[in-house]
Design brief:
alpha+beta, Beta-Lactamase, six-stranded antiparallel β-sheet, 29 helices
C-alpha cells in the first residue's frame, strides 16, 4: 500500500489540498486531466483541476459517484468517491485507479482534517499549535510516532512538563482501560495501562468533553484521588475519537506549584486531540492494512509450505511449525479424532512435554479442544485457569486442580475436511491469549489451509494405499489363478501368496488355512512353523463374520498382536473356505486401515479360490456331459459361426459318416441329403435369429429325424448346437401311450358308470326302506295292535290258567309291536322327515349303545332332504361302528354349519386302529369304513380318518350344502 503524500495532509486550505491531489492523481494514473470536487452543505463544488479534457465533464458523473458511494465510469471519464469528496479523471489507467481507490479512506480523512483546520483558522494560538502538530507528524503513518509527537506537542504548547497518550484496549459498561501508554516528560514507563472510572468515562467518552484539574480547587474530589499517583498541580484530559468511535485519551499535566489550566488550555488540548485522532485513525487504518497484507503474505507462505508435502507424517509437523511461527505460540498440538468418535488423541506436538502428549486424551465437549471438536468452530480461552474452562482429560483437570497447568491462553481450531472432522489444532500460550479479533480470524483461515493440506495428504496416502493394495490383490490373484496341476508348485504359490499378504498387512508372519473338499486342511505359512491341529482348531474358534484383532493371549506363540479373517465364498457366499492369520511381535493391535485391507485381501483370496473351485467343477461337468454325449443315442453335433463341424458324438458318426465321410471340419449344412438341406438351412437361420432356436424334420438313410438347432456362445465366439432324435421309436412309444390312454379312459368311464349305478342303488335302497318302514308301521304294527286288543278282551273273559296264558300272549305281542316299531324307525326314522336333521341326530345319539352327545356350532339351518339324509346315514353308520368295534366309554357327534358346507365329526375314546388294521378288517369283510368313504364321495365330499391305537378315533365328514 502506497503512503499518502505528506503535503496532502499538511495543506492549509481545501483548494490547496485539491490542487495537490489533482497533480498527484494525474502523475499516479497517467490521466490527461483531473478535477477534485468537495461536498459542502449538500452541494458539490469544484475545488481544483489539472490537465486537459475536462470539458467532457459536467459534474453529473461526480454526483452519481458521491450519491452511490462507488466508482462511476462513462467513456474516458471516471469518478472515484472518497468521503465527502470526488476525484474525477480523464483517460486514467485502471492500475492507477485501483491504487487511488486503496487510498480513498486516507484521502477522506485528510480532506476532513483540512476542512477542520480551515474552519478553525484564525483562532491564533490554537491554530498555530495544530499547524505545529501537523508539521511535526508530517503525515506519518507510524502509530508510535503519532502518539509520541502528540504527547510532546501538547506538553510544550501548554508549557507543562508532562503528557501521555493512551489508546483503549477495552471499554464498555461505563468503564475503559488503556493498553500501552506513550509518554513525554515522565521519569519511567507506564505498566498495566490507565483505568478510566465511570464519571470520567461519562464526560470524556460519552459527551466528548475535556476535564480540567487544579489541585487548589479539586484537591478533595474523586478525580484528585484517582490522579494521586501522578500527583499533578494542574492537568487537562481530552478524549481521542474518530468516526464516532472512542480511541483513547490525551493527558497533559504540570507539577509546578501554582500551575493552573485555563479554558483556553482545555480548548487547545481538545483541538490537538481532534487533530491527533485523525492522525491516529490514519495510522491505525494503515497498520490494519499493513497487518492484513502481512497476514496474507504469511498465509501465502504457510500455504506454500503446507502444500510442499503430500505425506501426513510430514504435513502435521509443518502445520505446527507454521502456526507457532505465525501466532508466536509457546506450544502447539494436533489432536486427531479416534475411531470411537468421542475422544481425541495428540498425533503430533511441538513444545509440549512427553508426559503431556502421552497422558492427554481430550473428550468431545470437554475443555477447549473438546468444545472446538463438538462445535466445529474456533474456541478461545484467554485465561483458561481464571475463566474456569476445566480440562478435556483427567490429566489436565488434575493439573488445573493443583494449580500446575503450564498455560493460560489456549485456542482450539477445528480441522474440517470433506470427510468430516479430522481433529483439532490447539495452540498454547503461557501468558494470556495475545490475539485480537483480526488475528483470531487469521487463525481460522490458517486452520482452513491446514485442513486442506491434511485432506490432500490423506487423499494422496489413500491413493498410494489403494495402489499398494491393488498390487497385492493383483499379485495374489495371479498366483492362485495360474494353472498349477503339480501339488508342489501349488503349495509354493500358496506360500508366496501368504508372504505378499503378510507384507501388505505389515505383519512379521502369516498363515493361510484352507478347508479341503475332502474335509481335510491345507496350510501355507510365511516365517512360521506349521501349527499343530490343536492350535489350528483354537484359531478357527476365533473366527467371526469379518476381520478381527486378536490379543496376545489367543495368538500363536511369540506373537504380541495378530488379526484373523475368514475366507467366505461358495456359490451362495456363505461357505467358509478357510481363514487368513497374520501376527507380529509388536503388541500394538492392528488399526482400522489394516483390518480393511485384510478384508479386501480375504475377499480376493476367497474370490480366487471360489473361481478355481468353480472351474474345477466346470471341468468335471464338462467331462460328465461329454460322457453323456458320447453314450447318447441322439445325434449331437456342434459347429462354429462359419458352419464347420467342431464335434460329433459316436451316434452321429455311425449314422452320417458312411454317407458323408469324416464329420469334424466338414460343413454342417452339406451333411444331410440334398433334398433336406434347404429345410436344415431354414432351421439354421431361425436358430441364429431367435433365442428359442430352430426346428426341422428330415429323413436320412431311412431314419426320420427331429432336428433342433440352438445358438451358443463359447469363449466369446458364436456357434450352433444340433441335436437330432430318431422319431421312429418315439412314434412307437406315442402309439403305445395313446392305446393305454384309451384303455384308461374306458376304465374311467366304467368307474363313472359304477358310481352312477351305486348312487341309483342307494337312492332305490332308501326308497325301499321308506316303503318297508311305512308298511311295517301302517300295516303290520296296526294288525299286531288290533290282535293285542282282542287278546286283552279275551283275557278278561277267562280265568285261572287260561287267563295267565292269554296275558303271556299279550306280553309277547307288545314285545313284537315294539320290535316292529324300532325296526321301522331304523329303516327310516320319521323324526328326520318331520322335525329335521338335528332332532334326528339327537334321537340317534340317544339310541346308541355307547354314551353319546351331540354338539352343534355355526348358524343352524335346514339342508336339502338328500343332504340331511346323507348326514344322518353317515352318523348312524359311524355310531354303529363305535358300538360294534371301538369298545369306547363315550362318543361325540359334532356338526358345524358353514356358509356353503357342513362338517360332521364323530369321535370316540375307544381302542383305535392303525391303517394296516383297517385294511385287514376290510379284507375280512368289514366294509363299514369303505361304505362311509363311498357314500361321502357320492355326495361330493371327503372323509378324513384320524386314529391310533390307544387314543380313539375321529371321523370328519366334509359335505357341500
Amino acid at each position: 500500500m502506497v503512503a499518502l503524500p505528506p503535503a496532502l495532509a499538511q495543506a492549509s486550505t481545501v483548494p490547496a489540498f485539491g490542487t495537490l491531489l489533482a497533480a498527484y492523481a494525474c502523475e499516479q494514473t497517467g490521466a490527461h486531466g483531473a478535477r477534485v470536487w468537495a461536498a459542502s452543505a449538500g452541494e458539490l463544488h469544484e475545488v481544483a483541476c489539472e490537465g486537459r479534457g475536462l470539458a467532457l465533464s459536467d459534474g453529473s458523473l461526480a454526483r452519481r459517484a458521491l450519491d452511490g458511494g462507488s466508482v462511476q465510469a462513462a467513456g474516458m471519464l471516471s469518478a472515484l468517491p472518497f468521503g465527502c469528496g470526488v476525484l474525477e479523471l480523464v483517460g486514467a489507467s485502471e492500475e492507477g485507479q485501483t491504487q487511488l481507490l486503496g487510498l480513498a479512506p486516507l484521502l477522506a480523512l485528510a480532506l476532513e482534517g483540512v476542512q477542520a483546520r480551515e474552519a478553525r483558522r484564525g483562532r491564533g494560538r490554537i491554530a498555530e499549535t495544530v499547524e505545529s502538530l501537523v508539521r511535526r507528524l508530517a503525515g506519518s503513518l507510524d502509530l508510535g510516532v503519532v502518539l509520541r509527537g502528540t504527547a510532546e506537542t501538547a506538553a510544550q504548547a501548554l508549557g507543562f512538563g508532562r503528557a501521555f497518550v493512551g489508546l483503549f484496549s477495552e471499554y464498555g459498561e461505563g468503564r475503559a482501560r488503556t493498553g500501552e501508554v506513550f509518554t513525554f516528560g515522565f521519569d519511567g514507563p507506564f505498566t498495566g495501562g490507565i483505568g478510566v472510572g465511570p464519571v470520567t468515562f461519562e464526560k470524556l467518552v460519552r459527551r466528548g468533553e475535556t476535564i480540567r484539574f487544579e489541585r487548589a480547587r479539586d484537591e478533595h474530589t474523586p478525580l484528585a484521588r484517582s490522579l494521586s499517583e501522578l500527583s499533578p498541580e494542574a492537568a487537562v484530559i481530552a478524549p481521542l475519537s474518530a468516526r464516532g468511535r472512542p480511541l483513547g485519551l490525551l493527558y497533559v499535566d504540570s507539577r509546578t506549584p501554582g500551575a493552573a489550566a485555563s479554558d483556553d488550555d482545555a480548548r487547545l488540548v481538545l483541538a490537538l486531540a481532534e487533530q491527533a485522532s485523525l492522525a491516529i485513525d490514519n495510522a491505525r487504518l494503515y497498520a490494519i492494512e499493513t497487518r492484513k497484507r502481512e497476514a496474507a503474505e504469511a498465509l501465502r507462505e504457510a500455504g506454500a509450505v503446507l502444500a510442499g508435502s503430500l505425506h501426513l507424517s510430514d504435513t502435521l509437523p509443518r502445520v505446527l511449525e507454521g502456526a507457532q511461527a505465525l501466532f508466536q505460540a509457546d506450544a502447539a498440538a494436533v489432536y486427531e479424532q479416534q475411531a470411537d468418535g468421542r475422544t481425541l488423541n495428540i498425533t503430533s506436538a511441538l513444545g509440549l512435554s512427553s508426559e503431556y502428549v502421552l497422558r492427554v486424551r481430550a473428550k468431545f465437549g470437554a475443555g477447549v479442544t473438546g468444545q472446538a471438536a463438538a462445535r466445529r468452530e474456533a474456541v478461545v480461552a484467554r485465561d483458561l485457569p481464571r475463566e474456569g474452562w476445566g480440562g478435556g482429560s483427567r490429566y489436565t483437570r488434575g493439573l488445573l486442580a493443583r494449580g500446575e497447568y503450564p498455560y493460560r491462553g489456549v485456542l482450539g481450531l477445528p480441522l474440517l475436511t470433506r470427510g468430516g472432522l479430522f481433529g483439532v489444532l490447539t495452540l498454547y500460550w503461557k501468558a494470556e491469549l495475545p490475539l485480537d479479533s483480526d488475528e483470531l480470524a487469521l487463525a481460522s483461515v490458517f486452520a482452513a489451509q491446514a485442513s486442506l493440506a491434511i485432506e490432500n495428504a490423506r487423499l494422496y496416502e489413500e491413493e498410494l494405499r489403494r495402489e499398494r493394495e491393488a498390487a497385492v490383490l493383483l499379485g495374489v490373484g495371479q498366483l492362485l489363478s495360474e494353472d498349477r496341476s503339480d501339488p508342489e508348485r501349488r503349495q509354493q504359490a500358496l506360500a508366496e501368496a501368504v508372504r505378499l499378504c503378510a507384507l501388505a498387512l505389515g505383519a512379521g508372519r502369516g498363515l493361510l488355512v484352507l478347508n479341503g473338499e475332502d474335509g481335510g486342511l491345507r496350510c501355507a505359512a510365511y516365517n512360521l512353523h506349521p501349527p499343530s491341529p490343536e492350535e489350528l482348531a483354537h484359531l478357527a474358534g476365533q473366527l467371526g463374520r469379518g476381520p478381527r484383532p486378536l490379543t496376545r493371549r489367543v495368538c500363536l506363540p511369540t506373537a504380541g498382536s495378530a488379526l484373523i479373517v475368514p475366507l467366505v465364498g461358495g456359490e451362495d457366499g456363505s461357505e467358509v473356505l478357510g481363514f487368513l492369520y497374520a501376527d507380529d511381535p509388536d503388541t500394538v493391535p492392528p488399526g482400522d486401515r489394516v483390518l480393511g485391507l485384510a478384508r479386501s485381501v480375504a475377499d480376493q483370496l476367497a474370490l480366487t479360490l471360489t473361481r478355481e473351485r468353480l472351474l474345477t467343477a466346470l471341468r468335471r461337468e464338462e467331462a460328465r456331459y461329454r460322457q453323456l454325449a458320447e453314450g447318447a443315442h441322439d445325434l449331437i453335433l456342434s459347429a462354429d459361426a462359419a458352419g464347420q463341424v467342431t464335434y460329433a458324438n459316436p451316434a452321429a458318426c455311425r449314422l452320417l459318416e458312411p454317407l458323408t465321410g469324416p464329420l469334424t471340419g466338414a460343413p454342417l449344412l452339406s451333411l444331410p441329403t440334398p433334398d433336406t438341406r434347404e429345410t436344415l438351412r431354414l432351421a439354421w437361420d431361425m436358430a441364429l435369429a431367435h433365442p428359442a432356436g430352430g426346428r426341422a424334420e428330415i429323413t436320412v438313410a431311412g431314419f426320420r429325424l427331429e432336428v433342433r438347432l440352438s445358438a451358443v456362445q463359447a469363449n466369446g465366439a458364436g456357434g450352433v448346437l444340433l441335436v437330432a432324435r430318431d422319431l421312429s421309436e418315439l412314434q412307437t412309444l406315442a402309439d403305445e401311450i395313446a392305446r393305454r390312454g384309451q384303455a384308461l379312459e374306458a376304465a374311467t368311464s366304467r368307474q363313472s358308470e359304477l358310481r352312477s349305478y351305486l348312487a341309483l342303488f342307494t337312492q332305490a335302497q332308501e326308497e325301499e326302506r321308506r316303503r318297508i318302514s311305512r308298511e311295517l308301521h301302517d300295516d303290520t304294527a296296526q294288525v299286531l295292535i288290533a290282535t293285542t286288543r282282542r287278546v286283552t278282551r279275551l283275557a278278561r273273559e277267562l280265568s285261572g290258567p287260561q287267563r295267565e296264558r292269554a296275558d303271556d300272549i299279550r306280553a309277547d305281542l307288545d314285545t313284537a309291536i315294539e320290535s316292529v316299531r324300532r325296526f321301522a324307525r331304523n329303516l327310516r326314522p320319521s323324526v328326520l322327515d318331520d322335525l329335521g336333521l338335528l332332532p334326528a341326530l339327537e334321537w340317534l345319539a340317544s339310541q346308541a349303545q355307547t354314551a353319546a352327545r351331540l354338539e352343534v356350532s355355526g348358524p343352524e339351518r335346514r339342508l336339502s332332504p338328500a343332504a340331511e339324509l346323507t348326514v344322518f346315514r353317515l352318523a348312524q353308520e359311524a355310531l354303529s361302528n363305535v358300538d360294534k368295534h371301538a369298545q369306547a366309554a363315550s362318543a361325540a357327534l359334532r356338526i358345524t354349519f358353514g356358509e356353503s358346507a357342513v362338517r360332521l365329526s364323530v369321535s370316540d375314546d375307544g381302542q383305535g386302529f392303525t391303517p394296516d388294521q383297517a385294511e385287514a378288517r376290510a379284507q375280512a369283510g368289514h366294509l363299514g369304513l369303505l361304505g362311509l368313504r363311498e357314500r361321502v364321495a357320492l355326495a361330493g365330499g371327503q372323509l378324513t380318518v384320524d386314529s391310533a391305537p390307544g387314543r380313539g378315533t375321529t371321523l370328519v365328514f366334509e359335505l357341500p350344502g
